[in-house]
Design a protein that fits this description.
By secondary structure, this protein is α/β, with parallel strands linked by helices. It folds into two domains: 65 residues; 263 residues, Type I PLP-dependent aspartate aminotransferase-like (Major domain) (Aspartate Aminotransferase, domain 2), CATH 3.40.640. It is built from 14 helices and eleven strands. Strands 1-7-6-5-4-2-3 form a seven-stranded mixed sheet, sandwiched between helices. Strand 8 and strand 9 form a beta hairpin. The termini are far apart. Bound molecules: pyridoxal-5'-phosphate. The site of pyridoxal-5'-phosphate (PLP) has 13 residues, from helix 6.
Length: 460
């Protein structure tokens, strides 16, 4: 029988081999036979299989179907690249298997989240008293933040939503940029507010909120409990809302302001892009991802809240068998998230921040932005290619003539295996959507990707 050490060493070696080869494998496995993968996974076995065999079988079966998301030329969906220290810390997280509910279930997990959360606030320039929850990602962060918002604005109207629910309570308005991310809508569904409650606000040519229209929408409805959702980093263009003006307008109406900054909030951690987030610290809650631009492995995001009491009131619970909330003066991580038993997500985040340091995070953001500009300059210089957005961050939207041709080019690029970019529809146009968000991407990778795109535009 193999020891656990042999087993983990083998698993680590196979993961490392994948990482080492990931730059040169096809970025997307277009030719993989998924039925063969399914067959290789076998049927439910009658009895046990030795652990070492299980791992070999798993790797052999799924390797051909892996996407090179940790490689240097994956530009889809703002996927981050997984830093080395964060990856290794994530392996340890599984090895230690700590339920990060509170300081009683794991003192280590509770302290690490406390420290890493403090570092995140510092880097992102959020107010000192801000509370935070380590959630599963942007969806989790938006949902937790909006639950805190729901608690707060209804409490101000004398309504205890946790106890009484929404039925019979005061009406609650939700006002949001009409180019918000779809996870805002899903959060509203989950919170019982419904997407029908949304009052959309117009956006400008770059997809940032039109503050005059925000004022108009706010003035057009009754005063009372109101949540305004803003965006740091438009999901397509990367554009930023004007936080100073929009937050002042929303606060004039007594609204709670939530900012979805799944990737764009990281602009605040880089001196050269920080101006894009000016005024953002005046918001009431903020959502961002760890697994996107911070390059922590999936799955981690962060919900920040300027009103810790609202945050904890919306999320925490207690039960007779539970002890340890607030033990030793430590915050209980479970009081700020949706889950009770949960992965100790703080270790990988701490490792990423420790590996990069303050300047490393800034450089990562800056390098990705510079590489996005390089894409835009090189692609924009090609015949019959247009850049549809102002490239202010890491997002580049590219058109290749008409919609049909653009789709054909994107599909050809995706099949090339050289790089992978997604497709989107923005302001009525089909576009290639390039997101540069991995620590591994270099200028040479951009040049090689541009060459692949150029090749895809020929004879099409
Ligand atoms: C990716 C993204 C989300 C959702 O984040 P997940 O981590 O996928 O749940 C929300 N908002 C924006 C702007 C995003 O880019």
């Amino acid at each position: 029988m193999d020891s656990l050490l042999d087993l983990l060493t083998n698993a680590a070696a196979r993961a490392a081999a994948h990482r080492e080869g990931v730059a040169e494998r096809p970025v997307f496995p277009s030719d993989v036979d998924l039925d063969a993968v399914r067959t290789a996974l076998g049927s439910l076995a009658e009895g046990p299989t030795p652990a070492a065999e299980v791992i070999d079988e798993l790797v052999d079966a799924v390797e051909p179907a892996l996407v090179a998301t940790t490689g240097p030329r994956y530009f889809g969906f703002v996927v981050g690249g997984a830093l080395d220290a964060a990856t290794a810390a994530d392996v340890l997280t599984s090895g230690w298997d700590q339920p990060a509910f509170n300081a009683f279930t794991s003192p280590a997990a509770a302290v690490v989240e406390d420290v890493a959360g403090g570092w995140l606030k510092e880097l992102l320039g959020l107010p000192v008293g801000t509370s935070f929850g380590f959630v599963t990602g942007g969806q989790g962060a938006n949902t937790v933040s909006l639950a805190a918002a729901r608690h707060h604005v209804l409490a101000e109207a004398g309504w205890d939503v946790e106890q009484r629910g929404l039925l019979g309570g005061p009406p609650l308005r939700v006002v949001a940029n009409n180019e918000r991310h779809a996870t805002i809508d899903r959060a509203l569904r989950l919170l019982g507010l419904g997407t029908g409650a949304l009052e959309p606000v117009a956006t400008d040519a770059q997809g940032a909120i039109d503050v005059a229209d925000l004022a108009h929408v706010l003035a057009g409805g009754p005063d009372g409990p109101t949540i305004v959702c803003l965006q740091a980093g438009n999901v397509n263009s990367g554009a930023f809302d004007d936080f100073t003006a929009a937050i002042a307008e929303a606060h004039d109406h007594g609204a709670w302001v939530h900012v979805d900054g799944a990737f764009g909030l990281w602009a605040a951690a880089n001196p050269a892009t920080r101006h894009l987030t000016a005024g953002i610290e005046a918001a009431d809650s903020w959502a961002t991802d760890g697994h996107k631009w911070l390059n922590v492995p999936y799955d981690v995001g962060y919900a920040f809240c300027a009103h810790p009491h609202a945050h904890a009131s919306s999320m925490s619970y207690s039960a007779a068998y539970l002890t340890g909330q607030g033990q030793g003066g430590l915050r209980a991580p479970g009081d700020y998230v949706l889950e009770s038993s949960r992965r100790a997500r703080g270790f990988a985040t701490w490792a990423a921040l420790r590996q990069l340091g303050r300047t490393g995070v800034a450089e990562l953001v800056e390098r990705c932005c510079a590489l996005a500009r390089r894409f835009s300059e090189q692609l924009g210089a090609l015949d019959n290619v247009t850049i549809a957005n102002d490239v202010v961050l890491n997002q580049v939207l590219v058109g290749f003539g008409d919609d049909e041709r653009t789709d054909r080019v994107i599909e050809k690029v995706q099949r090339s295996g050289e790089c992978w970019m997604g497709a989107t529809t923005w302001h009525g146009q089909r576009l290639m959507r390039i997101s540069v968000s991995s620590w591994r991407t270099t200028e040479a990778d951009v040049d090689r990707s541009v060459a692949a795109i150029l090749a895809a535009t020929e004879n099409i």
